[in-house]
Amino acid sequence: MQSRFDSARKRFIAFVLLGWILLLISDRVGELRNYQGAFVAMYSLAIACLILLTGYSGQLSLGQGALMAVGGYSAALTATKLSWHPVVALIMAVLVAGLFGLIIGFAVARLSGPYLSGTTLALAIALPSLANTFPSLGAEEGIIFDVGKAPTRFGEAFSQYKWFFWISALAALISIWLIANLLASKFGRNWKAIRDNQTAAALSGLNPGRLKVTAFAISSAFSGLAGALLVMLISAVSPSAFPLSLSFLILTGAVVTGVYNLRGVVFGALVLVVIPEIADAVVTSLGGSERLTSTLPGFLVSLLLILAVLFTPNGPGHLIHFRKKNTKK
Amino acid sequence: MKLFDTFLTGLSTGSIYSLMSIALVLVWRSTRVINFAQAGQAVLSTYVGYEIIVRTNSFWFGLIAAMIAGAAIGALIDFFFMRALFKRVKSGPIVLVAPVVATLGLLGIIQAITGFIWGLDNKSITPPVTTGGFTIGDRTLPFGPLNLLIVVAVTVSLLILAIIFQRTNIGLSLRASAFSPEISKLSGIKVDAIRTFGWALSGAAGGLAGILFVSNSALNPNAMDVLLVFGFVSAVIGGLDSLIGAVAGGFVLGMAINFAVAYIDTQMIFPTTFLILILVLLLKPSGLFSRSKGRRD
Amino acid sequence: MIRTRNLKRLVIASMGVGSLVGALVAPAQAADPGVTATTIKLGISSPTTGSAGRVYGKLPGAMKAYFDYINANGGVNGRKITLVHRDDKYLPTLAATQTTNLILKDQVFALVGALGTATHSKAYTAAALAAKNVPDLFVNTGYSGFANKTKYPTTFTILPSYAMEAKVMAKYIKDNLAGQPFALFAQADEFGKDGIAGFTAAKTPPANTQLYPTSSVTSDVAKTYLTAISATPLKLVILFGTTDVTATVLKAAEDLNLVGKLTFMAGSVGGDANTLLALGVKPTTIDGLVAASFFPDAKDTTDAYVSQFMEINTKYNPGVTFDNVVLQGMNSAMLTVQALRAAGKDLTRAGLISAIESKGATFASAGLVPLNFSSTSRIGYNGYWFGKLNAKGELKPATGTTPVVYTTDSGAGDVVKSDYKRLPLPAKGIPTNS
C-alpha cells in the first residue's frame, strides 16, 4: 500500500512540475509555438484516450474522430447556443461524449478485434456527415466555439495563442493525470488482465464485457474533451473537421508513442505536429516540380509510420528502456 | 417498376462491393490482417491496366495486366513487408495495432507514388462494352452490358476461388493455415508461401475490382478510398472469414444503399451503411454466412 | 529511480527547447510584415492534394505564373511579388494551422485566393486575421456568409454567392424554359443549402430536392436517382455540385437513354466542359447543357483576356492546360496587382483594404459581370450569364450572340438584366492603374 501511495504522489508531483515547466516555456516562445503547443497538448490527450482503449483494454478503435466530433459539437452548442461559460462547455463535452461512448460501447465493446475496428471505422465515416443533415448544427461554416480572450490581469501582451495553449495544456494535463491514475489503479490491472487473457480473467471473477464498456465510455469522454479543444483551436466545429484521416492520425500518434504506456504521449503528439513541418521544409528546400511538392509530404509521413512500426513497434520509449537495460549490464 | 429498377442498380453496386470484399477476406483469411492498403494496391494495379489499355487499345489486355499487376503487388507486399513485420512484432497489444497501422502507411505511400507518377487529375478508361442500359420496349433499364459483365466477372472469380479452395492442394493448405498456422506448419505446409499466395489472389481480385469500377467512373489516386470502406463493411456483414459471405455482404449493402437512395434520401447512404452494420453485429453477430462463432470474444 | 532520472532529463530538455525556440522568435516589427522596399509577400492556403486538390489544384500555380509575369515586367511599384502556398487538403484543421503558419511564420502581408467555406471560415478566426487586420483578398467561395463585414472585416470574396446563382437560374428558367418545375440535385453542405435558399428567395422552390454527401455519388446512385426522377413529370434537373458529380449524373443519363428526355442545368462550379469531356461524358451529351458562368469561356481565344492569360500560362506555367481554374487564378492575381497598385507606394494593410473598397469596382477583370466591391459590399462578381455548351465544350450564349448578363444580390433583391461592358484589357495584361 505504501509504495502505491508513493508512486501516486510522485506522479502528482511530476504532473505539477511538468505544468510549471510548460508555463515557463509558454512565456518564452512566440505565438506560433504556443499555437503548435496547444495542438500537441490536444493530440496528447486524444492519443492517451486511444492508449487507454487499445493498449490497456485491448480494443482497437479506428473511430476516435467520431468521438471527438461528439465532444466538439457538444462544446460548441453549449457555448454558442446556450451561451454558457466555456469551462461548462468543456465539461459538457466530457459528459455528452462519455454518455455517447457508453451507449455505443454497449453495442460494440464486446466485439472482437476486426469487427470492433470495422464498426468504429464506419462510425467515423457516418457520424460527421450526419451533422450536415440537421440545419441547427450549422453545416460547413459550423458553430463557433469561442473561449474568449485571456483575462485582462494577465496583461496586454498575453496573446490568444498563449491562452489557447494554457487551456489546452491544463485540460490535457489534468485529464492525462486522471487517466494515468486510473491505469495504475485496479481498473488498469483488470483491463490488462482481460486484454491478455480474457478467459482467465473471467474465471477469476472479472466481467470482461462490463470492463470493456467502461473503458470505451471513459476513453470516449476524454476524447470528447480533446475534440472540444480541437474545435477551440480552429474556432468552430463542422463535419469536415473530423475526417477519417483524423482518426488515423491519432492512431499513428499512438503507435509512435507505443500503445503500451502513456509515458510517451507528448512525443507521439509532437511527431504529429512536427512531421508535416519537416516535410514542408524538405519540399521547400528541394524546390522540385508541382507534383513532387504535392505528393512528398504524404510520402514522408507514411514512410515514418511504417519505419516506426517496423523498428520500434512498442514505441521509442520502449527502445530507450531496452537499451538502458543492456548498458547496465 | 421502381422496385425492379432499384433492384438492378443494387445488383451492379453490390457486385463491385463484392469484389473488394473478396479481396479483403482473402487477406484476412490468410493473414488475420485487415488490409487497408488494398485501396492503394487496387489503384496502382488499375493504373498499370490503364497504361496497357492506352498502349494496346485493348480493354481485355488491360484487365489481365491489372490482375497480374495486382497479384504481383500483393505478393511483393507480403514477401518484403508483412513477413518482416510479423517477425518483428510478435507479442503484446501492438500485435493488434501494428498490421492496421502498417497497411495504412502502405496506403499512404502507394497513393503518394501514384500521385507523383500519374498526377492527381482524373483519367478515364473506355469500357469494352456499352455502359448504356438494356431496353425493354421504350424503357431503358438501369442495367446494361457493362453491369452484366461485372456480375459475370464476380461470379467467375467466385467460382475460380471456390475451385481453388475446395479442389486443390493449395486451397486445402490455404484453409488449413488460416485455421491453424501452428498445426499446418507442423504438418509440413509452407505457411509463409501459402500466405503470400493468399495476398497475390487478393491483389488480383482488387485489380479486377479496380479496373471494372473505374471503367464506369474515373481513375485517380483516391478513386478506391470509398470503395474500400464499403467493401470492408460488406466483408464484416458477411462474416470476415467467408468468401460466400463476402459476396452476399456486398449485395446486401449494395441493395440497401440503392433502396435507401430510391425510397428515402440520398443523404442516407452513410447512415444506412452504419445502421446495417450495427444491426448485423447485434442481431446476428456471427455474420450472415460465417460458420464459426468468432465474432464475440 | 528511472522515473525521476527521466523526469530530470525531461526538465532539462524542455528548458533547452524552450530557450532555443525563444531565441528563434523574431522581435515584433513596427511596420506591417511582408513588405520591403523591393518585395511583397502574399500567402494562399488551398488544396492541392486530396479530392478537392484534383478540382482546384491548379489555382496557386496559375496565380504564381501571373505574378512572375508581372515581376518580369517590373513588379508593382518596384516591388516583386512572391506567393507562398500552403496545402490544406480542404480540411478545416489544416486550413487553420496552415493559415496561421502563413501569418506567423511566413509573415505574409496579405492572403489571396483562399478556397472553401468550411476551411476558410475556421482559418479566418484561428489565424486572427481580423485582429491583425490582414487583408483577405478574393476568397474563392460562393458562400454568402463571408459577406458579413462584422464577422469578416478584412475579407473580399470573388465568386458570386450560390444564392445569387440560384436566383439567376430561377430567372433563366422563368424567361427561357417557361418557368417549368424542376428537380434539384445538390451537395449536402452550405453549397447546396445556399442554393435552396436562393431558389426559395426567388419564390420557385425545387419540386424535388435531393442532397447528397460529398464523394458518395457513384454511377449506380446516380442511376437510381435519375430513374426516380424520370418516373415523375419533371423534365428539368439542376445539378448544384462539383463537376465530377455532374459527369457521373450525365453519364448515368446516357446509360439510361435520358439525355434527350431530361434537360440538365449545371451551376458555375459544376459545368467545366474540359473536365466533363476528360471524365468520359460524350460530346453529344454535353451539347446543349445549360451552364452558368461569370467569365468568358476559357476556350474562347478571341477573348482578349483569355488569350493574354493563355500566353502567360504557356510561358510561366508550362505543362499546365488552360481551363476555368487557371483563368480564375490569373484573374484573381490580376485583381491583386491592381489592388496593390491602388494602395499606393506606402503599402499598408489598412491602405490595401480601403483601396479595394474605394476603387475595387473599377478594376479591369476578365469577368463579364460587374465587380461589386464597395465600403458596404464585400462580394466581387454579382451576377451570371447563361450559356449552352456545344459538342466541343465551348460555352456559347444561350440566346443570341452576346452573353446576357443578369445581376442580383444574395437576399430578396430582384434579378435584373445588366448591360455592363467590362473594361478593356490593360496593354499586355499589365495593369497601370493607380
What would you say this structure looks like, in words?
The complex is a heterotrimer of chains A (329), B (297) and C (434). By secondary structure, chain A is mostly helical. Helices cover 76% and strands 1% of the residues of chain A. Chain A has one domain. Chain A is built from 13 helices and 2 strands. The longest helix of chain A has 27 residues, at 2-28. The relative contact order of chain A is 0.17. By secondary structure, chain B is an all-alpha fold. Chain B has a single domain, classed as ABC transporter involved in vitamin B12 uptake, BtuC (Orthogonal Bundle), CATH 1.10.3470. Chain B contains 11 helices and 2 strands. Chain B has helices spanning 2-31, 38-56, 59-88, 94-118, 145-167, 169-179, 181-186, 191-214, 225-237, 243-263, 269-283; strands spanning 135-136, 139-140. The longest helix of chain B has 30 residues, at 2-31. The termini of chain B are far apart. By secondary structure, chain C is α/β, with parallel strands linked by helices. Chain C has 2 domains: 39-160 and 300-381, 3-Layer(aba) Sandwich (Rossmann fold), CATH 3.40.50; 162-293 and 385-418, 3-Layer(aba) Sandwich (Rossmann fold), CATH 3.40.50.2300. Chain C has 14 helices and 14 strands. Chain C has helices at 2-24, 50-56, 59-72, 92-104, 117-126, 162-176, 190-201, 219-230, 243-255, 273-278, 283-286, 304-316, 324-342, 349-359; strands at 39-46, 80-87, 110-112, 136-139, 155-157, 182-187, 208-212, 236-240, 263-266, 290-293, 383-389, 395-397, 405-407, 416-418. In chain C, strands 6, 7, 8, 9, 10, 11, 12, 13 and 14 form a 9-stranded mixed β-sheet that branches. In chain C, helix 7 links the parallel strand 6 and strand 7. Mean pLDDT of chain C is 86; it is low at 10-29. Classes of the chains: A mainly alpha (329), B mainly alpha (297), C alpha/beta (434). Chains in contact: A-B, A-C, B-C. At the A-B interface, helix 2, helix 5, helix 10 and helix 12 of A face helix 3, helix 4, helix 9 and helix 11 of B.
